[in-house]
Specification:
By secondary structure, the protein is mainly α. The protein has a domain at 224-321: Cytochrome P450-Terp, domain 2 (Cytochrome p450-Terp, domain 2), CATH 1.10.230. The chain is built from 16 helices and 3 strands. Strand 1 and strand 2 (28-31) form a beta hairpin. Bound molecules: carboxymethyl coenzyme *A. It comes from Brevibacterium aurantiacum.
Length: 373
């Protein structure tokens, strides 16, 4: 075998993108040139979604038009509501999201229409409807009827209303909005790359997004935010963190919410999300969870020099917001739909079929035996 194999495509530059830039050396992440921390401090998720798709932050008038379009498309048809209600109550919510995305593709007569205008319309519709899908799924698992979306509330507040039938304090809504900004985009991560691979075959946007949902589900990627919370719950209290880590490392387990393929000295999004998590701790008086979070982080980083990624603070922050643990990754989808679809449009605008090579290490060529008895 003479080919050099880059397992996991580690370090391989596959294509260019103008959507976001990750700089490993400086731990920085920019969306369309703006540092993500500054976007989180100064913008709403709606503004960032607009930026990701349109390359520029919206003016006041552009934002109002964009918000009106989003608010006008939040409702989903009765057949989709029924489809969600009919799925097994104990299936993973990411399967519900994936099924719903496929359904929306199946009923869209323009599903196969290519081009930026058609795709932007589909992207905006998915962005508007995913929160409704996730909220209905949450409520049915609790034996509750859906709460209809309302045009009177912003994106994040409307989502809380649809899930819990009430809108929490502005501080809580803002923490959620910040998490959505931080989760919106991250260059050629596994799920985004999946959407680009599917798009490269000239398949439609819904097929690409459904594939992205599948890739995001895994705990090495988006599923880590759920796995972090499950892990913290299993550990229990700060004084048990060290012994739990001893045991996990002895079993060679990966510690969820730590490590990153690109950032080796810390994830640029963590300080902002950690602050949002601390705000949630203050709002809910959850100092025990913060103590556990800090003790676990200090112990693991001290031993391994492997730093937390965004899923470490976001998992417990969503927990304190009241979301069920298995809904955390669907919430990630609600944010990443912006980045995925921007990449889908970019791929389509300058497409080359993504089809790498493999180095064969199986049997030598052989003949099919006539007698196989
Ligand atoms: N726990 C224990 N050991 C780890 C971890 C971890 N979380 N992360 C890396 N390592 C070790 C790894 O075992 C390897 O050790 P050795 O050299 O002895 O074999 C070394 O560090 C290098 O790691 P790697 O596996 O080469 O790193 P990678 O770039 O392939 O993996 C990762 C990146 C994210 C898959 C990995 O760090 C991981 O599994 N983390 C836990 C899951 C997680 O939090 N995923 C979320 C990722 S970021 C946000 C997102 O996508 O949602």
């Amino acid at each position: 075998m003479t080919e050099e194999i880059k397992k996991g495509l580690a370090g391989v530059v596959v294509d260019t993108t103008a959507v976001s830039k990750v700089v490993q050396e400086t731990n920085s992440l920019t969306y369309r040139g703006y540092p993500v921390q500054e976007l989180a401090a100064n913008c709403s998720f709606e503004e960032v979604a607009y930026l990701i798709w349109n390359s520029e932050l919206p003016t006041k008038a552009q934002l109002e038009e964009f918000q009106a379009r989003e608010r006008g498309q939040r409702g989903i048809d009765d057949k989709l509501v029924q489809l969600i209600l009919d799925l097994p109550k104990d299936c993973h919510p990411m399967h519900v999201v994936q099924t719903a995305v496929s359904y929306l593709g199946a009923v869209d007569p323009d599903a196969d229409v290519e081009g930026e205008e058609a795709n932007l319309a589909k992207a905006e519709r998915l962005y508007a409807q995913l929160p409704t899908i996730v909220a209905i799924d949450h409520r049915r698992r609790h034996g509750l009827d859906p709460v209809a979306p309302t045009k009177d509330l912003g994106y994040a507040a409307n989502f809380f209303k649809m899930v819990f039938d009430e809108v929490p304090d502005e501080a809580v809504v803002r923490c959620f909005d910040i998490s959505m900004i931080l989760y919106a985009e991250h260059s050629f991560n596994a799920s985004t790359f999946t959407t680009r691979v599917i798009t490269s075959t000239t398949a439609d946007l819904y097929s690409a997004v459904a594939g992205g949902v599948g890739a995001l589900k895994g705990p090495l990627h988006g599923g880590a935010n759920e796995a972090v919370m499950a892990m913290l719950e299993e550990v229990g209290t700060a004084d048990k963190a060290s012994a739990w880590i001893d045991d996990a490392l002895a079993k060679k387990a990966k510690i969820m919410g730590f490590g990153h393929r690109v950032y080796k000295n810390g994830d640029s999004r963590v300080p902002t999300m950690r602050k949002a998590f601390e705000n949630m701790v203050e709002a809910k008086g959850a100092t025990d969870l913060l103590d556990l979070y800090n003790a676990f982080e200090e112990d693991f980083v001290g031993r391994k020099g492997i730093y937390p990624n965004l899923d470490y603070p976001s998992g417990p922050a969503y927990h304190l917001m009241g979301f069920d643990t298995d809904q955390f990754t669907p919430i990630f989808v609600m944010a990443r739909i912006t980045g995925w679809t921007a990449h889908i449009m970019e791929q389509q605008a300058n497409n080359a079929l993504i089809r790498p090579l493999s180095a064969y290490d199986g049997h030598e060529q052989r003949e099919v035996p006539a007698d196989r008895g």
